[in-house]
Amino acid sequence: MSLFGKSFEEKVQAALATIRGKFPQAQLDAEIAGEDVTLRGVVPNMALKNAVMQAFNELVETHQTFNLIRVEAAPAAAAGPQVPSAGSLTDVTRPVIIDPAPAPPEPTERIHEVVKGDTLSALAKKYLGNANLYMKIFEANRDTLTDPNLIKPGQRLRIPN
Q: Which residues contact 53 (CB under 8 A, 6 or more apart)?
């Protein structure tokens, strides 16, 4: 522990512990380099990936947070959905567990059409969870952009995952 409280690494580890407790289906780990953090792991759907990133960004202030969390749908149970036996249909205390429909596959590429007032950092915040990741969008669009500060309404930008 540093003189002024928790070290950066302790803050990151505490944030991961909090997120793991809040989202037990998320398998997460972090690499720390200075004040840059790379989050890695697996979550079952995109909504959870976004929730994890939002929670992490609220808990820890980093220089940059790289989101390398993969979305992989959990494999279906080998035995299939659990259905109550005929004798238990009147037993209201026993829950009926039915497997949810599989999540749709994650899109390989997203497109955003620029509107007046858009900035790459605002798009990075919206799509990637961290405004500091604006260069990822710029790099994905090097064929049409020459300057990350010059985007125009009507341009169609690729948004990396």
A: 39, 65, 67, 69, 128, 129, 130
d(CA 8, CA 1): 9
The DSSP secondary-structure symbol of 6 reads: S
Rounded to 5 degrees, what angle do the CA atoms 134, 135, 139 make?
A: 130
Positive or negative: CA dihedral 37, 62, 52, 138? negative
Dist. CA 110–CA 27, nearest whole Å: 25
Task: Encode pLDDT of 50-77 as tens digits.
Answer: 889 889 988 998 888 888 899 887 655 4
Q: Which domains does the chain have, with CATH numbers?
A: 1-74 (3.30.1340.30), 107-161 (3.10.350.10)
| CA dist., res. 143 & res. 125, Å (int) | 22
**DSSP three-state, residue 67:** strand
Amino acid at 96: V
pTM over 0.70: no
Residue 29 DSSP SS3: strand
